[in-house]
Amino acid sequence: MDLFNNLALGFGVAFTLQNLMYAFIGCFLGTVIGVLPGIGPLATIAMLLPATYALPPVAALIMLAGIYYGAQYGGSTTAILVNLPGESSSVVTVIDGYQMARNGRAGPALAAAGLGSFFAGCVGTLILAAFAAPLTELAFKFGPAEYFSLMILGLIGAVVLASGSLLKAIAMIVLGLLLGMVGTDVNSGVARYSLDIPELTDGIGFIVIAMGVFGYGEIISNLGKHESEREVFTANVTGLWPTKEDFKNMIPAVLRGTALGSLLGILPGGGAVMAAFAAYTLEKKTKLKPGEVPFGKGNIRGVAAPESANNAGAQTSFIPLLTLGIPPNAVMALMVGAMTIHNIQPGPQVMTSNPELFWGLIASMWIGNLMLIILNLPLIGIWIKLLSVPYRWLFPSIVLFCAIGVYSTNNTTFDIWLVGIFGFIGYLFIKLGAEPAPLLLGFILGPMMEEYLRRALLLSRGDWSVFVTRPLSASLLAGAVLLLVIVLMPSVKSKREEAFVED
Amino acid sequence: MNIKSQKDFFSGLMFMTVGVAFAWGASGYSIGTGARMGPGYFPLALGVLLTVLGGVITFKALVVETEDGDKIGAFAWKPLVFIILANLVFGAMIGGLPSIHLPPMGLIVGIYALTFIACLAGDRFNLKEAVVLATILAVMSYFAFIKLLNLQFPVWPVLAGV
After folding, report:
1. Domain assignment of residue A386, yes or no
2. Residue A236 within a domain
3. Residue range A81-92: mean pLDDT, rounded
4. Are the CB atoms for A309 and A276 separated by under 8 Å?
């Protein structure tokens, strides 16, 4: 079997002492930073990315995958314990998780999240390994028109899930695409929007935008709130392990969550968020057993299902990235940035030209999941301690790590000036209720989209109908339109708004 | 005419401004045709699209009722100024500012400066706490970033003639 040969190759790469260590360090750092309130996985990865620069590419990616999982798990911890979702995919976890924590059942909630995620991660890894090869085959059939349409589908998919106004989310994407235009145009060599500043001819670093908008913007907004609005965690955590009863309720929820998550994660733009929402909705639809805690009051299924779903989704959302080179969400967009820094252009060619890296990464994802369980279940006590670090110590440290991270990317102070500007812009976005994640996705995709659009139209001699006459491209675009239509349907629209305000 | 959603109204204006700016900038580059796009083609299209989107958002903000008017609320100027300033001063300490003859002061001085200024953004400023925090961060960063990760930073002040 090819699948097993490939996985064996992957585990061979990942199971070296050095790489295991990097996976461990990544998970550890990711959790440490991710657990801090107000720092989501996106900010965590952006902050820790520079730490991987010095490593060889395989090790760096393994460590990044570790950071990603650690950050995601850390985010769930904060969601459960402080009622503060670090990112959109743990928004639903908050609902029942925090209630469980308030009832003194934080331990079982965290364990449910951890075990559910681990199981989902294992399944997700297998699916990833199984689907990667055939999808790569498909990817080679993709021409520029298909890539362009796929990106449209991905971007639309991403905004459909953003909370708040759909129009604003689309506008943020376009804004991101425009920011991606800054720098030298590869075809003509013209320095676009560089304002005669030499540093800008290389374009704006995505780290700069990520740190400014997500790091500084968030800090400023947090500090702007009155102290009483910042949650302080005081509840006690007693008893880590779920009871037998809990397990009985959990297991079917985990299975359903995993299935939904793996399915939705593959869709471009889908990924973790939609998976978590869908899984929670599904659980709510199933009947409560007699004596079971109702949803919204601390039902363990309300934690286990969305957490498994978002982890399975997170795993399978690597599929479009690794096989097509298209990041389905902002976190994956950061991964693309990280890969480019290590001179790897994500896409179908990675698997053939760089099989060690490809399969090593897949294997290390599973290892990352395992590490998380080993690391987090016994250490939950420590993470909780970390949560009680007062914000007034935390935020200067975050500012410092952001500044160091930005500087070390290019060793230039210009980036530090720029991140200051983006910090202001990020705060403005928060104030105006414009969600910044789609902007980052647009920013990463901007240059790629332009390139594919150019090539597609060059091949068709300027005939725009090429996007709808090629069947693959047409069906991708139809998918995008369908998504929009579904979201704009009155019944779904009200449901969607309901889902995002539910608390 | 009254604004029904402040947030949407101003974000719409923001999108329109940025859209117009980018579109105007793009018109300075060669546009080309669909088959042979110039560097201005895609940005121009996006700029126009953003302007239109911004216009629709602003329009909706004037027409569609919201419950509470979606107020933007007060700007948190204090944290805004101090956080950004801390960041900028850190940059100046690392790289120096030739325009005012400030030599690079290095990472350690930079960390102290950043921590102090950033602490001013908080609700209460406590000098002793800031010193302790800055020292911890300086020691940690030195070992983590300089020793362990080997990042290229000027660590100590570069004094003229040394």
Report:
1. yes
2. no
3. 65
4. yes
Predicted confidence band of residue A278 (pLDDT cuts 50, 70, 90) = confident
Provide the 8-state DSSP code for A214: I
Q: How far apart (Å, rounded) are the C-alpha atoms in residues A317 and A328?
A: 7
Q: Which residues pair with A455 in a beta bridge?
A: none
For A219, the domain range is 2-231+241-501
Q: pTM for the whole thing?
A: 0.77
How far apart, in whole angstroms, are the C-alpha atoms of residue B106 and residue A275?
47
> Model ipTM?
0.89
> Among A423, A43, A338, which residue's Cα sits nearest to residue B91?
A423
User: What pLDDT score does B162 carry?
Assistant: 42
Q: Is there a contact between A69 and A368 (Cβ–Cβ < 8 Å)?
A: yes
How distant is the alpha carbon of residue A233 from its chain centre? Answer: 26
Which residue(s) pair with B97 in the sheet? Answer: B102
CA distance A458 to A466: 11
B141 vs A398: CA distance, rounded Å: 12
Alpha helices in A35-104 (DSSP H): 41-48, 57-82, 91-102
Helices (H) and strands (E) in chain B, counts: 5, 0
What is the C-alpha to C-alpha distance for residues A175 and B47, in angstroms, rounded to an integer? 8
| Mutation for B interface: A400, A458, A501, most B CBs within 10 A | A400
| Neighboring chain A residues of B8 at a CB cutoff of 8 Å | 165, 168, 433
B18 touches chain A (CB under 8 A): yes
Number of structural domains, chain A? 1
Q: How many helices (H) and strands (E) does chain A have?
A: 23, 2
How confident is residue A178, by pLDDT bands cut at 50, 70 and 90? very high
Q: Which of B11, B36, B91 lies closest to A413 in CB terms?
A: B91
CA distances from A354 to A129, A153, B91 (A): 15, 28, 38
Q: Quote the pLDDT of residue B52.
A: 95
Nearest CA in chain B to A173: B50
Per-residue pLDDT of B72-106, as tens digits, reads 777 888 888 888 999 999 988 888 777 777 788 88
Residue A227 lies in a domain: yes
Query: Does some domain include residue A325?
Result: yes
Phi, psi angle pair for A45, to nearest 5°: -65, -45
What's the CA gap between A254 and A236, in Å, rounded?
A: 26
Three-class SS of residue A184?
Answer: strand
Mean pLDDT comparison of A167-181, B113-127, B133-147, highest-scoring range: A167-181
In whole angstroms, give the CA distance from residue A200 to residue A412: 12
